[in-house]
Amino acid sequence: MKETWISERRMIQLPGLTIDRHISAPNELEFPGCKYHLLCILLSDHNQQKMTRIGEQESQKSQAKGDFWICPAKMSGIWSWNSTDESLTFVIDPLFLSRMAEEVGELNESKVELLSTVNAHDPQIEAIARLFQAEFDTGGLGGHLYAESLIQVLIVHLLRQYCAFSPKIKPDVGSMPNNRLQPVFDYIHSYLDRPLLLAELAEISGISQYYFCRLFKQSMGVAPYQYVLQQRMEKAKELLHQRKYAIAEIALLVGCADQSRFTRHFKKYVGVTPRMFLSKK
Question: Full-prediction pTM beyond 0.85?
Fold first, then answer.
């Protein structure tokens, strides 16, 4: 089915989930359902919604900026609207949600039932959506690790608040032991020149992704994505000191896709641009 009502679209694709930011023209849509869970939050003002129906849930009110709906996998829906809207949709693989439920609270796959929801407002979901909106606006400045960390927070919140059976979150067990941390450090330092994924780091530590994030932060005082960014910038400082590489080359050597993105990261971390850093030496 060609989505002719979509006039502009950008996506961030992650393991088990896609974030889809799009602008949609007025339309009436009968949706037969799909194999993914959908969570869609409105980013723009002046919505003129005529009807939203998901399963047995129905609303004929316009949505406010920050309102969202949830359409569980295989559930049909009807949408009708008269406005041009900007939205952010999280397309969630049910297997990913089930795996997270098992990791977080030992919730059996058969118990993972996402609830249909229409015209709802949740400050935490809105805050996460705004952070992803900023990622789109900056060209993915935070990188995959940052995006994956945000998704961890979103999924746990959905499991707690929008599932028929809420998992019992297992308590943390203190910091991560050094014999699990050191291989992660070694791996990060060996591959600073390429994107790093949360699944890779968690697998090396021998801990689930959810608890890896929590225990890493308790051990290091920063989230994994923050630690990796710090190491990239420290490596960049070393390479700048050597004066053997152009700034564009250093950007690639520390895993930044382009010089502009590298400069923004470097200035935020060091306080000056790479060129200014060089001029002071």
Answer: yes
Last residue of a domain, one of 161, 194, 212: 161
Number of Cα atoms under 13 Å in the Cβ half of residue 63: 30
3-state secondary structure 62-121: CCCCCEEEEECCCCCEEEEECCCEEEEEEEECHHHHHHHHHHHHCCCHHHCCECCEEEEE
pLDDT in tens, the chain (281 residues): 458 889 899 999 999 999 999 999 999 999 999 999 999 999 999 999 999 999 999 999 999 999 999 999 999 999 999 999 999 999 999 999 998 888 887 667 677 889 999 999 999 999 999 999 999 988 777 788 999 999 999 999 999 899 987 777 766 667 899 999 999 999 999 999 999 999 999 999 999 898 899 999 999 999 999 999 999 999 999 999 999 999 999 999 999 888 998 999 999 999 999 999 988 76
Number of domains in the chain: 3
Q: Residue 209 belongs to what domain range?
A: 178-226
146 with 235, same domain: the answer is: no
Strand partners, 13: 18
Q: Which residue has tokens 């979150």?
A: 169
Tokens of 258: 């382009």
Are 187 and 243 part of one and the same domain? Answer: no
Task: Reduce the DSSP state of residue 45 to 3 states and report it.
Answer: coil
CATH at 57: 2.60.120.10
For residues 29 and 157, membership in a common domain is answered with yes
CATH of the domain at 189: 1.10.10.60
Under 8 Å between Cβ of 236 and 264: no
Judge if 30 and 154 occupy the same domain: yes
Distance between start and end Cα atoms, the chain: 59
CB 235 within 8 A of CB 192: yes
DSSP 208: -
